Amino acid sequence: MHESNPFIVADAPAADRAAFFRRTYGLVAASFGAFAIALFGLFVSGVAETFMRAIAGVGSWGMLGVMVLFWLGTTAAQSLAFSRASRLAQYAGLGLYVLLQAIIFVPLIYYTAIVTKGNPGEILIPACLATGALVVALTAVVFMTNLDFSFLKVAIVIGSICALGIVIVSLFAGWSLGAWFSIAMIVLMATVILYQTNEVKNTMETDQHVAAAFVLFSSFVTLLFYVIRLFAGRRE
Fold it and tell me: Which of 49, 66, 115, 216 is the right S-S partner for 235, CB 3.0 to 4.6 Å?
């Protein structure tokens, strides 16, 4: 790899390009492994139960505060992951984001345990398989068609703003966001994956594999969240 003089991935020699994608997707896989371990640790240690009690005790403003804290933490993690200061800072940012996602998944895992009467694997296993298949298919579309998906940015921005607005309104109005919302978010995240994979391929440099892994893990794990939510909602 040409770390001192990196190429844009799309313009890099074949060997450098292949090495970039091996390292990027290897880091994504490692991030999911760390995510599963962190989530398991939260439940085994009792932190998850404490977190759930805290959530149960706060109102709409408290939940909004949790969302703001998650956003601030994500912003800090992303800043580190994209930092050129040091590789250690980049890995710290990715690690912080993995931990934040594990915490955010705690209520969803509790929910799946409830609707499956203590056997969340009935939902988690098929949801993970479905998410993996969708990710592979979307990634293949980007790499095999060579289409430019940058035009999706406007739709993603508008969709994200609308989704955030719906979530905030639902917190204060007491609405239950049903299957339709999960399906809409799955469609939105599929669009995000197409766009972000295209951006990683065509705009990032060959020494930015940590930042690329951050971007892809973010979209993949968010897609997983809403696939699990959809599957769990059907069991109610």
Answer: 115
